[in-house]
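Benzoate transport
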Amino acid sequence: MSPALPTPSPTPSPPDDAPADTAFAPAAIAHTDSGGAPRGHAVRALVASVLGYAMDGFDLLMLGFMLPAIGADLHLTGAQSGALVTWTLVGAVVGGIVFGLLSDRFGRVRVLTWTILLFAVFTGMCALARGYTDLLIYRTIAGIGLGGEFGIGMALVAEAWPARLRARASSYVGLGWQVGVLAAALLTPWLLPVIGWRGMFAVGLLPAVASFFVRRRVEEPELFVAHRERAAQAAPQDKPRALRLLIADARTARASLGVAVLCSVQNFGYYGLMIWLPAYLSKSFGYSLTKSGLWTAATVAGMAFGIWLFGVAADRFGRRPTFLAYQAGAVVMVFVYAHLSTPFALLIGGAAMGMFVNGMIGGYGALISELYPTAARATAQNVLFNIGRAVGGFGPLAVGALAARYSFTAALGMLAAIYVLDIVATLFLIPERRGTALE
């Protein structure tokens, strides 16, 4: 049983240093916490958001499994196969920014539906690809749809759930990625030999069903509806610009810089570790592909536990203390893991390392939601996280270069060092907002 969460005293207004919605601050509505169980609409919002982020994880790992078959069938070079992944991520960065802005203007549920439909349709189109060029176009556009799901889902859940459970609910959205990765790891090796890579892409049409569930069963949060009504009544010159609100004043700009650093380190460490971990186990210890996969799975299991635990701890102890504990744990465990050598130690050490390295994904939804007003919440989630995703794309490159020039141990040591930067950013740039009423 998870530890009971304390019910914070009502917070009528944000702390003095809270970033303000300069256009609507006088009319800001507090998102109160009744202390009761989440209502049905909050649960449906959570389910929709988890499904969206699960599709993100499922798609990227599924593509990794399919690349050899796609390359052989379409006669692609290694560089062309790699470009399919790269441009999917490029599309995700673009989509995250664009759909974040659209969500703050038109609504969380409506735009989340758009992102799912765009992803589903162009993933299905990949099944009809005749060569490299059209497949690359379809993958890029599918990536655009994919990129909006994380931030919109996080904003939707934060606005729908009570403050005392906000971090825990956000951590469940973070777990969606792990669910998607696990589903891809289990289903793709089984389905791919049967239906081929074109059939696997055709399966990608199924999320279109989820989009109808989202549109018909999930309501816009009351907080966003109230904001939209105020925005409709405001003069054009008084309406806030979401991107400007990320740097509305010095305190907000510092917070935005801090969150961008945290998201960059998060993605850099995650991609750098997960892309190279099987190769590290194989080259350094002679593990077979199956054994490397099993030991990597232990790391993923640790990540999932870490995400859940982060949400519980952040609601009980606060965002900053929990981030600092995980960041310190990441420094220690990545360094320790680099010096382990026995199979059992690598198994347990990998799970512990995964818990700290990726467990922090469970905290970004609540943290970012509490730092920005409703007029910019989804924009902040998607822009700042996708800045981190763009930086994180260099993680595998940096780890690979260091491993080739020095050793995997040296590369892992570099990954451990970057979490020190995380600690500095949290200490000096990130304010505490636990229990704060959303504006």
